[in-house]
Amino acid sequence: MINLIKMNLYRMMNATSTKVLAIVSALFGLMQFGILKLIADDPFNIMGSMASEMGFDSVTASTLVSNFLRSSNFLIIVAVFVVLFANAEQKCGFDKNIIGITKHRWLHPLSRFIAAVIGVTALMAITGIIGIGCSALFVNAFTFGSATAFVKTLGLTYLGTVALAGVFFFFTTAFRSAAGGVVPSLVICTGILYMIEQLLDLLVKKVAGSPKLLPTDLFLDAKFLNFNMDSGMTACLILAAVCVGYLVFSVGGSMLLTQKRDVK
Amino acid sequence: MEEYILETNGISKKYGSVMALDHVDLRLQRGEIYGLIGRNGAGKTTLLKILAGLARPTEGSFTIFGESPEKSKTLRDRIGILLETPGLYPNMNAWENMKLKELTLGMNDSAYVRELLEDVGLSIKDKRPVKKYSMGMKQRLGIAMSLVGHPDLLLLDEPINGIDPQGIVEIRDLIGRLSKERNISVIISSHILEEMSKLANRYGILDHGHMIDTFSHQELLRRCRERIELRTSDPVKACMVIEKMGITEFKIMDGSLIQIYERLDGSGDIVLELAKNNIKTLGIEVKNEALEDYYLSLTSERNTGKNQGAK
């Protein structure tokens, strides 16, 4: 297992796509910072009183984590990275060299996912450090805010991103192609799935009145992207539980599929 | 009792309604080079995939190193695999690709990797990404990669595809040397039957998923030995004439063909004797059959039989 993780990390470090996505993440962090600077500090006086109306009187570390890392745009970077990384071994046929010689086939998706999570963490760190770091240094309205809120937001954002990475990973493993992984992943990231979920909500409400549980309560993307980080502990725990559930099912599903299926 | 490093027992594989392998039996002794022969779609790759642990048989069982596939999982790192096109990361160079396999096996021996690359005629100094390699170079790298981890069993599917003649000789020598020096057993499939006959010491012919014949190299030499091939208008009568001439080693192959294995320099006498008995000679030649001819005659016989059966 450790050997497989080492191998996956080695190929990640040497892959062109990783380097490109690291640069994209850095640029994304800078872009987010630039937009924030324009809105919050309004150096060119183009926003007038809108900045305060938009809630940019004070910018805290937790709101930045929530805005920068818990966004659809950043999830697209994560999705592209995970899909490319998960599919590379099969695309080039390298898996044929190694799957047969390892004790259990399921170790391969598991180790690959662990390596992908390390990659996702690095991308989050790049965007976060550049975006939040520059904002802390150069945005006048910035204050660190509550440490507890920061830890809670960062923790849930990280858990949700990793869970969604697991879902993207599962699609790529199940469809055995980059296209098969990217298309459903982008449907999630761009909010198309959320629109469908809302329609389902309406349908359920129409049929069942006002049920306690709606489809959007069960879908990870809806829960994660629309979660209010100021919510209480119970809501946070529910989100964490949904994330862990999706993570277990998607990674477990990938392991099961790899174990059961023949290598092409 | 002979020690088999690999033994299959009625292995079958079905893809939907297509029977890719049908009750295939194969035995491989330690240090043996087994040539797997068959046209495209005969089931060679499917069989190798099953043995490599990449696919599961629909029916049948097999043992590797004397253990069942489940128990042999711990021994699987003793198998080197090269299936179809070599699985290489195109943006990485040869060294980095080798490093990946090394890391998977928990090894860290740069000198060994260098030695393997040199063995297959690749340079460690070549830093070009693999995507810029020729087909032959990729194939060489695939072979080198299959050798990482000091395997006892090599499964090579068309390893000399795309390699130039000089390279083919080098690869053949390398495989032969590995088998002799390290007692490595090899199963090798190839379309280049002439090369196969120079390398393998046992053969198996696969046709439409069936193992239709297995034989040793000595047997091949015996089967492909020099002979007179005679075509006449009346083969039954011709056989009687040949017998009268004192020739005993001959056989009728099909409607008009007789193979004679003695008096190879006496074809003139045979034609003369046949003419005296009013038997027309349609053709006569001294032939030395190669593995390729043997394979073609075997599969065409089988397919003719099948077609007749269908009619």
Percentage of helical residues of chain A? over 70%
Sheet with the most strands, sense and barrel status of chain A: none
**Residue fraction in strands of chain A:** under 5%
Number of β-strand runs of chain A = 0
Largest sheet of chain B: 6 strands, mixed
Strand order of the largest sheet of chain B: 5-6-7-3-8-9
Helix content of chain B: 25-40%
Q: How many separate structural domains of chain A?
A: 1
Order of helices and strands of chain B: EEEHEEHHHEHEHEEHEHEEHEH
General form of chain A: globular
Work out the helix count of chain A.
13
Number of strands of chain B: 13
Question: Would you kindly provide a written description of the structure presented here, covering whatever features stand out?
Answer:
The complex is a heterodimer of chains A (264) and B (311). Chain A is an all-alpha fold. Chain A has one domain (2-190, 227-260). Chain A is built from 13 helices and no strands. Chain A has helices at 2-14, 16-41, 50-53, 61-69, 72-92, 95-98, 107-138, 147-175, 178-189, 192-208, 215-218, 220-225, 233-260. The radius of gyration of chain A is 20 Å and the shape is globular. The mean pLDDT of chain A is 85. With 311 residues, chain B is α/β, with parallel strands linked by helices. Chain B folds into two domains: 4-216, P-loop containing nucleotide triphosphate hydrolases (Rossmann fold), CATH 3.40.50.300; 226-288, Alpha-Beta Plaits (2-Layer Sandwich). Chain B has helices at 44-51, 94-104, 110-119, 135-146, 165-182, 193-199, 217-223, 235-244, 267-276, 291-310, and strands spanning 4-15, 18-29, 33-37, 59-64, 79-82, 153-157, 185-189, 202-207, 210-216, 226-232, 250-252, 257-260, 281-288. In chain B, the strands form three sheets. A six-stranded mixed sheet of chain B has the order 5-6-7-3-8-9, with helices on both faces. In chain B, strand 6 (153-157), helix 5 and strand 7 form a beta-alpha-beta unit. The radius of gyration of chain B is 24 Å and the shape is elongated. The model of chain B has no long low-confidence stretch (mean pLDDT 83). The chains are: A mainly alpha (264), B alpha/beta (311). The interface between A and B is medium-sized, with 26 and 35 residues.
